[in-house]
Amino acid sequence: MTCAVLSIGTELTRGELVNSNAAWLATELTALGFEVVELDTVDDDRSRIVAALERLASGARVVVCTGGLGPTTDDVTTEAVANALGVRLARDEVSLELIRRRLEKFGRTMTETNAKQADFPEGADILPNPVGTAPGFGVRIGECMAYFMPGVPREMTKMFLDQVTPRIRALASNNLHQSRMRTFGLPESVVGEKLAGIEQDFPGTTIGYRAHFPEIEVKVLARAASHSAAREVCERATAEVRARLGGYVFGDADDSFAGVVGRALRAKGWTLAIAESCTGGLVGHMLTREPGASDFLLLDAVTYANSAKARVLGIDEDTIRWHGAVSSEVAAAMAVGAKRISGADVALALTGVAGPSGGGEQKPVGTVFLALARPDGTTDVKHRVFPGERLQIQTLASYAGLQLLRELCTPRPAERTSEIG
Amino acid sequence: MTCAVLSIGTELTRGELVNSNAAWLATELTALGFEVVELDTVDDDRSRIVAALERLASGARVVVCTGGLGPTTDDVTTEAVANALGVRLARDEVSLELIRRRLEKFGRTMTETNAKQADFPEGADILPNPVGTAPGFGVRIGECMAYFMPGVPREMTKMFLDQVTPRIRALASNNLHQSRMRTFGLPESVVGEKLAGIEQDFPGTTIGYRAHFPEIEVKVLARAASHSAAREVCERATAEVRARLGGYVFGDADDSFAGVVGRALRAKGWTLAIAESCTGGLVGHMLTREPGASDFLLLDAVTYANSAKARVLGIDEDTIRWHGAVSSEVAAAMAVGAKRISGADVALALTGVAGPSGGGEQKPVGTVFLALARPDGTTDVKHRVFPGERLQIQTLASYAGLQLLRELCTPRPAERTSEIG
């Protein structure tokens, strides 16, 4: 069954925003079994929205639209749909009340601008929005079902999964199965080389790659005569992918790298302390954005200045002066200091040059020393030089630090450690 | 002058790739003065490519296309264009020789598959590709100029800048001017209300809004008879926007909130210490992802466990036991402790409940205490309850903390402080 995606917004046609919504929806719709034939994007112009909608609806069984449902004057999607259908807008009292309550919860009063978000084309199937003010809606245009959702990704994804998916699932041809895995430690081209030939060995499968820096997501999509046959070949191909990639696969689509590390620490029953310098709190942020970090994280001492390294972690100022703040010696002392003052079982320390300035011939921008103080009292330091700009270097260093913790909790063969950087 | 972008590729319609090419081209075309009205994407299907091309060419003066010029069988763009024009494919000997040489340079022999990339619709304007094997080309379709480029971003961007831009520049109307501002502290609907009427007061202007949680970006786009007239009305409208939004505007499109706070601290010559709990390092990460944070940031003590609050910041354990870790008293003690141990001029502390668990009736999820220890020795605590899920609460709390620093450095009337949360 064919379907199309329509994205609405001048911020998209002007290129101010990369349209990740369309790619996300295309992935989901493909996984449901639809053949997605077109992803169109138009600006916030009533007549162009109407024209695109009529055109897509005449050729596809389902059209999924995002954007233009906000409260401001440039949000004209709802009016355009009413025009296309030749119906009036009607205010929905239930939606109005939900918007009012949501605004009150945040201490705000509803204005006419907000109330506009409770207007829908007459006869529309309203899709409540539990995480924002703009509800979505569905309408029938000829033989096509069209669904309209807000453009805010967090609101759109929830509305699509919870409300649109159940409404359209029956329209899809259910002969597809997909699996997704997240990997860290190999560049995309090497992941591709390691998986060469799998599509031929498992007919009906397609291997897809998506880079979410610095991770590579691998997808296995299988098509067969029936859904159970598709699932069977997908599972066999996925097992082959996992076997070839080994420890580079750290989890499923919904796992985060830091979340996996957190689970591993929790499983060991170890508490953690961190001492950061060049990464400036990013390791702590990655671990604590996942719920439950308080089970293992005691302290993250971001000792940015040398004086803080000395005062907070008790590092001898002569050590810093003699070896420099970016050195194996200081990294080790940071880890040992963080472990001692926090009483944690394990400590990770990072010190380096994130750039753009501060690099030298001996220690160019990207140089990072990573120290790991283990429960058995030993401390190791690794020296790495990461490529890229400041935030990339900070991100790669943070991943490398988390990888050390992952390897400590779940030792793997040496060949499976990171090859990036 | 209107233009459109057509992206071709099943990897795009299946969502395996986010279409960053289209956003890049839209930005470039807008900057050249074109009004980009549509970004369409179709799969590698001859008839759909032809239909999209004919449709876009009938409505736009320029259509820029990417993808489907590769050597494999699923690359059918060139054939589709020849079909649309009703002409034959002709092999170009110059392009063939360049492809042969390029392959030889990499130690490869040209096959018929490669040679296919030297075929073009008869009469096409060939665009050489110095960084890849697939040349591009331009054709006239009715009143429209259409250009076809490879989908590989590195090859596409070079071909567009070096070869397409000079060919289309004269077609662009250079009568646009745009300004962009970033705001924090007001929800989108309130920003919209404050700016109501500006489009009418300054004819030719359009106000656009874009949410980058928790910021709202405001754009003023002006169209006039000439570029200088557009700039003039844009500047006047922008001044009015800034006057109405006051201190909620924190910078231009390229400024980050943390970067603005860092600049303000640097201007004052103040050093900073932070003590975080519920935000887990996010405040430190936001400040240190900007270059030059070492000018002012001494320490960010992420004292996640109560024991760390006591050991690192020297907070009396009875204070924590008596008032709870999430309390005005502990927030104040964290700020005072961070200031004392680091020797910084200013200290910011945050302690709260980021959720999803840990909330109670007195201190629900979202409760955050923010303490500011000032250079004059005074310390204040603010109590807030932020809405949303874990990462949203952490983000709002971090912004609120940075906002306290911003206000300390550049005092503003009370009415201009944050209204979010």
How is this structure best described in words?
- The structure is a homodimer of 421-residue chains.
- Chain A is of the alpha/beta class and 421 residues long.
- Chain A has 3 domains: 2-171, Molybdenum Cofactor Biosythetic Enzyme, Chain A; 176-252, Alpha-Beta Plaits; 258-416, CinA-like (Maf protein), CATH 3.90.950.
- Chain A has 16 helices and 17 strands.
- Chain A has helices at residues 10-13, 20-32, 46-59, 77-85, 93-105, 112-115, 153-168, 188-194, 198-201, 227-245, 257-268, 282-288, 306-313, 317-323, 328-342, 390-409; strands spanning 2-8, 35-42, 62-66, 89-91, 119-121, 125-127, 136-141, 144-149, 176-184, 205-212, 215-223, 249-252, 272-276, 297-302, 346-352, 367-373, 379-385.
- Chain A has a 6-stranded mixed sheet with strand order 2-1-3-8-7-6, sandwiched between helices.
- Mean pLDDT of chain A is 92; it is low at 414-421.
- At the A-B interface, α1, α2, β2, α3 and β10 of A face α1, α2, β2, α3 and α8 of B.
